[in-house]
Specification:
By secondary structure, the protein is α/β, with parallel strands linked by helices. It contains 21 helices and eight strands. The protein binds adenosine-5'-diphosphate (ADP) and magnesium ion. The site of magnesium ion has 4 residues, from helix 6.
């Protein structure tokens, strides 16, 4: 923190120094640093950038603040206000009205409740929930491939914030919309001979004002900004302005920002200043749970074996999984028949055709043995050697994911092992895949060979 200039700042500075060691750094940065202090008649008035910071301070920090004040020689009157919201100030918006919110509405079905968690999206889910409750990470960036729930989680943050505070201005904007809004403001400015210079500036101001007057900006698919220099520059300034004001920002990207060609370094570093969380394709159990959840949301009954069937055959993205389930549901309605396995097989004939080739256990064992340069019979043997145990676990996990066989069946074909051995193997591989990048790659390449 730079050296204090006035006695007032001096006082607040020493209070801050007292508080700093008492709070987690992240809390200090989020809640204490943005406060503006005013000292008059021994009374400390703090202005928070928004209601969240104010409320947090009020419920978590008042007595700490009072004690710190006393030690610094002031009376213990502490008052916490939130900043008069700038857009309610007629001076800063024409006619005293709020600028329209940019972007589009939140999708009502994209809530936290409707989001099924599993090992590959739990971290992202937890981070999003945390932001919605405590606004602790800013910006929050969720990244991962298409159809994996990034937009869903982002909307869920928006819904949750609005539950707390209806009047909060939460804007969901796709990056494409941001670019279009900016370019159209720019075009108007350029074509605005008739407006004159100040008129054109007002047009650009309007654009900036509408984006900067939000309390929370949810900006989807920032990879769309790649290579678009002027839009990216505008985005950078928007980001800075909002962050400076303590507004919450949530972003999504289809990969790690530094892996997106055409994103500027300063943008990448801004995005990285908060928290980045990854979503990966869900595992088999989560996929089945998602199918069941979608059925429940549609008030339909989907038996477990049907959910498992869909989950086994559709693994590329949740969006496709949902599409596959809807196809089954549509056929069931059309025929006036309940959802069951034969109906699901019928409905998904074309979806499943490409992967319908039955993958056999022998095939899996042969492939895995080949890959690790051991013999298929080693996989079925009693050997506890590490060089055999790990490939055996991988083969079991692949069998679980890519065949319809039951756990006992799988155990049986690996040298008459118990089904709990299979469960443990599957679990172990799942854990390892999260921590061991190498093993994860091996698993993925084996799976992709099987899918051919
Ligand atoms: P992305 O933005 O990552 O491309 P979306 O958020 O649009 O993906 O998700 C695609 C579809 O899949 C949406 O209908 C969404 O509700 C659904 N979906 C994704 N992940 C989950 C999940 N974990 N639980 C329930 N539905 C999900
Ligand atoms: Mg999306």
């Amino acid at each position: 923190m730079p050296g204090p200039a006035s006695p007032k700042a001096d006082f607040w500075h020493s209070v801050c120094q007292e508080l700093k060691p008492l709070l987690a750094e992240e809390k200090y940065n989020t809640y204490i640093q943005p406060l503006e202090a005013q000292l008059s008649n021994g009374k400390l008035q703090l202005t928070a950038p928004n209601r969240f910071v104010r409320d947090w301070i009020k419920s978590n920090c008042l007595s700490l603040l009072r004690q710190a004040c006393e030690r610094s020689g002031a009376e213990a009157h502490v008052e916490v206000l939130d900043q008069p919201v700038p857009r309610r100030n007629p001076a800063s918006s024409q006619a005293g009205t709020l600028p329209p919110l940019p972007g589009s509405r939140l999708m009502p079905q994209f809530t936290f409740d409707a989001f099924v968690t599993g090992p590959t999206n739990q971290v992202a889910y937890d981070a999003a929930r945390h932001v919605a409750r405590h606004r602790a990470y800013n910006p929050l960036l969720i990244y991962g491939g298409v159809g994996l729930g990034k937009t869903h989680l982002m909307h869920a943050v928006g819904h949750q914030l609005l539950v707390g505070l209806r009047q909060l201005r939460v804007a969901y904007v796709h990056s494409d919309t941001f670019i279009n809004d900016y370019l159209s403001a720019l075009r108007k400015v350029r074509a605005s001979g008739t407006y004159g210079r100040s008129g054109s500036e007002a047009l650009m101001e309007q654009f900036k004002h509408s984006y900067r007057s939000v309390d929370t900006l949810l900006l989807d698919d920032v990879q769309f900004l790649a290579g678009k220099e002027s839009s990216q520059e505008q985005f950078y300034h928007t980001l800075n302005a909002l962050l400076q004001d303590g507004r919450q920002i949530v972003l999504t990207c289809d990969k790690l920002p530094r892996e997106v060609a055409g994103l500027e370094t300063r943008v990448i570093s801004r995005l990285g200043a908060g928290l980045m969380v990854n979503i990966e394709p869900p595992d088999l159990e989560t996929r089945a749970a998602i199918v069941l959840a979608k059925a429940e949301a549609a008030n339909a009954h989907c038996p477990g074996d049907v959910a498992m069937f869909i989950a086994k055959h559709i693994f590329s993205s949740v969006r496709e999984l949902e599409g596959a389930y809807r196809t089954v549901e549509a056929l069931s309605r059309f025929r006036g028949m309940p959802i069951d396995l034969p109906l699901a097989k019928q409905a998904l004939k074309s979806h499943v055709a490409s992967v319908a080739r039955r993958i056999t256990l022998e095939e899996i064992q042969k492939l895995v043995a080949n890959y690790f340069q051991i013999r298929p019979s080693d996989l079925r043997s009693a050997s506890r050697k590490r060089a055999i145990v790990r490939p055996r676990q991988i083969a079991m996990a692949l069998a679980r994911e890519h065949t319809d066989l039951s756990l006992p069946d799988i155990g049986e074909s690996f040298g008459g092992r118990d089904h709990t051995t299979v469960i443990n193997a599957v679990r172990r591989i799942q854990e390892l895949r999260e921590t061991d990048h190498n093993l994860d790659q091996q698993y993925k390449s084996l799976a992709s060979i099987l899918a051919q």
